[in-house]
Specification:
Layout: H1 2-27, H2 38-59, H3 66-88
Helix pairs in contact: 1-2, 1-3
Transmembrane segments: 7-24, 36-60, 67-87
Keywords: Membrane, Transmembrane, Transmembrane helix
């Protein structure tokens, strides 16, 4: 279980960094933070919280539990699909 938790934590951090980079890239086109829709903003908050929990798990500050692994996998699957759509479908963006 520890190996699966480390892999899912690492993926959570990488996906969060990529999503945050994509958001900054979108905002770099003279777009305001207030123009972001509510649902993508909530998804961004969830991804950032998941990345923080993953980081704490990787450095050993948080005890590894099976429920954390399940929650990370539940978050990773839709975020992976979202990032795939952002990368390979030019009509979808973070905002």
């Amino acid at each position: 279980m520890n190996i699966a938790l480390k892999i899912s934590s690492s993926l959570s951090i990488l996906l969060a960094i990529f999503l945050f980079y994509n958001l900054i890239d979108e905002l770099g086109d003279r777009m305001s933070i207030f123009e972001i829709a509510f649902i993508p903003f909530i998804i961004l908050i969830i991804v950032i919280i998941n990345a923080i929990l993953s980081f704490l798990l990787l450095i050993g500050k948080l005890a590894s539990k099976k429920i954390v692994l399940i929650v990370q996998i539940i978050i990773l699957i839709p975020i992976s699909v979202l990032l795939y759509q952002i990368l390979y479908n030019s009509t979808i963006s973070c905002t």
